[in-house]
Amino acid sequence: MTGGRTGQREGLAFPVVSILLALLVAGPLLALPLSFLGGGELFDPTAWALLPTALRNSAVLALGVGVGTLALGSLLAMLVTFYDFPGRRWLEWALVLPMAMPAYVLVFVLLGQYDADSAAQDLVHAIFGDGATLPEIRSTAGTIMVLTACLYPYVYLMGRTAFQAQSRETLEAARTLGLSHARAIRRVALPLARPALAAGTALAVMEALADFGAVNLLGYRAMTDAIYRVWYGAYDRSAALQLATVLACFAASLLVLERYLRSRARYQQALVRGEAVTPRRLRGWRGIAAAALPVALVAIVVVAPLTQLVLWSGAWLAEGTSAGALARAAGNSIVLASLAALLAAATATVIAYGHRVRIRSRAGVDRLGGAASRAATLGYAIPGTVVAVAVYGPLSWLETKVDGVLDVGLFLTGTVVGLLLAYLVRFQALALFSVQSRMDAIGPELDEAARGLGADRARVFADVHFPLLWPGVVTAALLVFIETLKELPATALLRPLGGDTLAITVWEATKDSRFDTAALPALLIVLIGLVPIALLLRRDEPMM
Questions:
Q1: Does domain 325-345+382-544 have CATH number 1.10.3720.10?
Q2: pLDDT in tens, 521-538
Q3: CATH code for 41-308?
Q4: Model confidence over 120-154: pLDDT tens digits?
Q5: Of 462, 459, 443, 442, which Cα lies nearest the Cα of 451?
């Protein structure tokens, strides 16, 4: 009987710990709906004035970026999968590089290049006359185009993976029915990839709703901008929480819609089996035309901005300006990104393993664990501004209670603790999806064999599961590192004094149009971000 109780306690240990960790990650988000339960006025005059325009602009932004990334990402994915043309092999991976280019960096480069006094404007005036101007990027269309150019890799990566998983026999069967190669792709391959394309589009839309730096620089009054203005402008924490709740509900409704659409189409991908598709060779002008769009996109989104950043950085360094503050910002960025990556990967590993070993006979534990695991992934569907506002509330309440007893001051919101928790809430989904996908690939017979040899749960995890999970854990850490390095809104709201990062340095310089000052930290963000992307591509691991 004693051995049975011991085994039962052992079986519950991992699930209980994993549930507690999942609830810790998801817990701060409870501060959002609770903001409506307090007394007082619903919103304040400032929030009421900002809400209609901000909500409408966010809806327009979500629709525009959704359509843009779906069209561009799926087109590029089909192009590199089903056709062979000059430069295809390097373009296939070069099209992923915009993931390392934060949208706010691309915006400030464009603002610097296309300013009314810039050389680009002078060239346009010389060619087309004084009345000619470059397209205005401080507009709704400009904001949508910039975010689409930076976010299409989400759709491209997932679409490319889905297209490559399809069988050659499926397209050949369509061809025997009289369809051309292009029509077979449109009528057969594209519908089969619909769940993956919908998932990629949802991720891109969530990132667009979460964006703060780009929309702020472009003067686009979206919900993230409204939350920031209420938080720092009116200093009304309650109203900021309420606005954040509205945005969270909007983002969650889009996520529910995407999952509904995916669930209705998921069966289609399972029907596809067989040999991989052989791309059709395009020669002559057709091959050149096929390569033109990818080459132009990489040149505009990656090569040209990097070139401009290098030129501005060189001019800044030539002035002999002290680099001490920049070095500290770079160190802060790397340390914070590394800590967030390690925390997220470790938490995701425990949650994934707890999910695996839950006692199925205890339905309550199983249901609670499943709900907690799903709740831990909600932060990715919520903008960083919202996460920061949600995290600040409970941490501020807790440190007030502790400070009243121990007199320790702001030991949570005044340090990196609050910022790391915000990163964990925001990016836990990336880590958990990566680790969980590796965990699902491990057959249950390995657990049974190890348990049959007398190994306890901890030994099974250390000797069997963790070595097999290691590639997924590394991928999870690299993904979180990339996203944390670029994260701006949560960092702007929760950073401690003296804790500026490269993203904050770029943002503060670009607010004052000091493009030469912002160039080197922006260049460092891109270059540092390219390192984990290169490692991911080298490992040939799926990035979503």
A1: yes
A2: 989 998 898 888 888 777
A3: 1.10.3720.10
A4: 555 555 555 665 555 678 889 989 999 999 999 88
A5: 459
